[in-house]
Design goal:
GO molecular function: phosphatidate phosphatase activity
Order of helices and strands: HHEHHHEHHHH
Distance between the termini: 23 Å
Protein name: Phosphatidic acid phosphatase type 2/haloperoxidase domain-containing protein
Family: Belongs to the PA-phosphatase related phosphoesterase family.
Shape: elongated
InterPro entries: PAP-like (IPR043216), PAP2/HPO (IPR000326), PAP2/HPO_sf (IPR036938)
Strand content: under 5%
Subcellular location: Membrane
Structural class: mainly alpha
Helix content: 40-55%
Mean pLDDT: 83
Length: 338
């Protein structure tokens, strides 16, 4: 009896799907403490090393010998944007770091009420640490090697010069000077020469953008169904927090707007990179809640829909609890060509 071609294609596709699911799915060991340390010890070591590099670089004298004008020939101040007083941070550095870790971590733990997965807690928390620590080291090295003037630079520099002594500096018409004319505290001067990029902004966007991506993946905010509006608002709430933390630095005159923008871009870059480093996807709603394998991961993640049967999201809608997820357009794993 001749089997119809359409039935034959369906049978071959089904057989191929089963074979790929069985061939490439890694066998996970029971994650004992010994296996955990053996698997992740180098990641934690690198985090510590990057943390030390960031702390040490933040304490070093800035590399560039920046030149700056103070007065024009007529006695007018050249750059009044650098004459603001040195004031206290609205959000201190220690509080910024604490919020950067604590806010996303609270959401990670709240998701475990429904998910109850140590693998997810570990993947999400380590990804959060990667984003914060890597972003911090990245921006601190830029500050040390490039830097820039903070809005309160001239206030802490306290230059020993007046309009009558203009013309004794460097550059055109002797209008430019370096930090050798400063009489203020050396530590404050070093700090005031390390404005770009903003560390607060980097930490805020690294952690809170990461938090939004995690919430989207677990609650399926942008998925195959229309969720309740509060989920949409919740997705953007951490982003509002990041903007408020970053923008506050223009109020207390610790950073220029372009320092804030640069830090925000760096933080966002590390948030996306860290999330994708830990999870199977950033935006693909079928897989973005599933941690990538690290233990016995020779074959990697095979991107088959049967993973949804054992990898729960925080949503009960859209098919995550009844196995009815379907492939998206142009999805090769769900509609394999013959």
């Amino acid at each position: 009896m001749k089997v119809p071609r359409n039935d034959l294609i369906a049978m071959e596709q089904s057989t191929m799907n089963v074979q790929q699911r069985t061939m490439y799915r890694p066998q996970q060991d029971v994650l004992t403490f010994r296996i955990y340390i053996r698997t992740f010890w180098m990641d934690y070591l690198v985090l510590v090393i990057l943390g030390i590099i960031g702390i040490e670089a933040n304490m070093l004298r800035p590399i560039p010998n920046r030149l700056f004008p103070i007065y024009f020939r007529n006695g007018e101040i050249v750059n009044p944007e650098f004459t603001y007083p040195l004031e206290k941070n609205i959000i201190p550095t220690w509080l910024s770091g604490l919020l950067a870790f604590l806010i996303p971590f609270i959401f990670i733990m709240l998701m475990q009420i429904r998910i109850r997965s140590f693998n997810d807690v570990n993947a999400a928390t380590m990804g959060l640490l990667y984003a914060i620590v890597s972003g911090a080291a990245f921006q601190v090295l830029i500050k040390w090697l490039i830097g820039g003037f903070r809005p309160h630079f001239l206030s802490v520099c306290k230059p020993n010069i007046n309009a009558a002594s203009i013309g004794k500096g460097k550059g055109f018409d002797g209008l430019l000077f370096d930090r050798s004319i400063c009489t203020g505290n050396e530590k404050d001067i070093n700090f005031a020469l390390q404005s770009m990029p903003s560390g607060h902004s980097t930490a805020a966007f690294a952690s809170l953008v990461y938090c939004s991506l995690y919430l989207n993946a677990k609650l399926k905010i942008f998925a195959n169904y229309r969720p309740q509006y509060w989920k949409f608002v919740l997705f953007y709430a951490p982003l509002l927090g990041a903007v408020l933390i970053a923008a506050s630095l223009t109020i207390d005159h610790y950073h220029n707007w372009y320092d804030v923008l640069a830090g925000s871009i760096i933080g966002t870059m590390f948030a996306f990179g860290s999330y994708r480093f830990q999870y199977a996807s950033v935006w693909d709603y079928r897989f973005n809640h599933i941690p990538l394998p690290r233990v016995d991961a020779e074959h990697g993640f095979d991107y088959h829909l049967d993973h949804l049967e054992e990898s729960l999201s925080g949503s009960r809608k859209g098919g995550w609890r009844n196995g009815q997820i379907h492939g998206a357009p142009f999805d090769a794993t769900a509609t394999l060509p013959i």
